[in-house]
Design brief:
The complex is a heterodimer of chains A (212) and B (185). Chain A is α+β, with helices and mostly antiparallel strands and 212 residues long. In chain A, 31% of the residues lie in helices and 30% in strands. In chain A, strands 1-2-3-6 form a four-stranded antiparallel β-sheet, covered by helices on one side. Mean pLDDT of chain A is 76; it is low at 79-87 and 104-111. The chains are: A alpha+beta (212), B mainly alpha (185). Chains A and B meet through α1, α3, α4 and β5 of A and α2, α3, α4, α6 and α7 of B.
Chain lengths: 212, 185
């Protein structure tokens, strides 16, 4: 079932691809076809424009009192102080590499350990990369490495927390099936039970179980 | 009174300009919060989702590409994704997709600050959606608003997978053709 798609087959799948609801294997094949077929790519783009516009038909509603002020407070540049600083990132990356060299990060460790790691797994159970989390009194960091199989495009790095909430940490690019990402986090690494790397054009992606 | 474009406000938001941030939230909050309420069906949760959507827009302002569509559709897509993340963990059964799309609700008077983002395009879109056969419209709305796959739509509607795929495909293509004809008319 991994034969390349024909144009007719791709166009059959184009509406679901444009809506971002195509399942993993079909999506990968359709995306692979559009990468090499300009007419099909243009067709999907046209449908995607329509698909995106459907949300304009959604309802409007008056937000609760104080919503505007509370939201603007979250958007103040001061909050950017929590965003990654290059030198800190390099220092923590060095620490992670040192621990890796010592074999410490090769296993998944308990959530109270400062450094945890787990394989990133696709929907069909294939290992596609690895996630590292580090958290201590000085802050929390994450590193994501995709080794193979990811379709080119932008992905959101998401963290699912113990309380059930999901937080988007950052967006990054994958090219030629590979990509890596590292960042400080405004959340505590200890609170994370699962990391996800999700394509921004659909719900397709990879997960790393950090619950144990 | 001069009013900055949506693109200019987003650029200001991304650059950390507080006035732009205030104007951006004021201009879009009714649509963002309205969509969040429509998808999650809970006012408190919708507030969290709407705030998360604005934070994501702020963080990812630099990734916005005007060639791919207007700011409002980009922002609503962010809102939809944040709402789906939230609702999938809490609500196994989807709410009625037609109510989310505000197709059978009395038309509310738009808030003055939202007028800038309401356009003929929205009216044409609602009209084109209304003209789709009900089963195709439901399939397209379940996919668009709730991120449901063909398999999930088949389970929700009690129809075979192939039928769900056909409804999505035919519905979106008809909608696309109707909007293209409307623009060219």
């Amino acid at each position: 079932m991994n034969d390349p798609l024909s144009c007719d087959e791709c166009r059959e799948l184009a509406p679901e691809l444009a809506l971002g609801v195509l399942d993993g294997a079909e999506r990968a094949r359709a995306v692979a076809h559009t990468m090499t077929c300009a007419p099909c790519r243009a067709y999907v783009d046209q449908l995607a424009t329509t698909a995106d516009s459907i949300l304009l038909a959604g309802p409007e509603a008056e937000p609760p009192f104080g919503f505007e002020a509370r939201t603007v407070a979250l958007l103040r540049p001061a909050a950017q102080a929590r965003r990654p600083r290059w030198r800190q990132l390099v220092a923590v990356a060095a620490a992670v590499l040192a621990l890796l060299a010592a074999g410490v990060a090769g296993r998944t460790s308990a959530s109270r350990e400062p450094l945890r790691s787990a394989n990133l797994v696709s929907a069909n159970g294939t290992n596609v990369g690895r996630v590292f989390l580090y958290g201590d009194k000085t802050g929390s960091w994450c590193f994501v490495s995709l080794a193979t199989q990811a379709a080119q495009g932008q992905y959101d790095v998401q963290a699912r927390l113990r309380d059930g909430n999901t937080v988007v940490i950052q967006r990054f690019w994958v090219k030629d099936g590979k990509g890596s990402y590292g960042s400080a986090m405004a959340i505590r690494a200890q609170d994370i039970v699962e990391m996800r790397v999700v394509s921004i054009v659909g719900s397709w992606g990879f997960t790393a179980d950090l619950s144990t | 009174m001069w009013s900055p474009s949506d693109d200019a406000l987003l650029a200001g938001l991304g650059a950390g300009d507080e006035e732009a941030a205030v104007a951006f939230v004021r201009r879009f909050q009714h649509r963002v919060y309205g969509l969040a309420v429509g998808i999650v069906g809970d006012a408190g949760l919708a507030q969290d989702v709407a705030q998360e959507a604005f934070v994501r827009a702020w963080r990812h302002a630099s990734t916005y590409d005007a060639r791919r569509g207007p700011v409002i559709t980009w922002l609503l897509a962010i809102t939809r994704n944040a709402a789906i993340d939230s609702v999938r963990m809490r609500r196994p059964q989807p709410i009625d997709p037609e109510s989310i799309a505000a197709l059978h609700l009395p038309s509310a008077e738009p808030h003055p600050d939202a007028l800038a983002v309401l356009s003929d395009e929205t009216a044409k879109l609602r009209k084109a959606l209304e003209l789709l056969p009900t089963e195709q419209r439901r399939a397209v709305l379940l996919a668009s608003y709730l991120g449901r796959t063909a398999r999930e739509i088949g389970e929700i509607e009690g129809i075979p997978l192939g039928t769900a795929k056909t409804r999505i495909r035919t519905g979106l293509i008809r909608l696309h053709s109707a909007l293209v004809m409307e623009r060219e008319a």
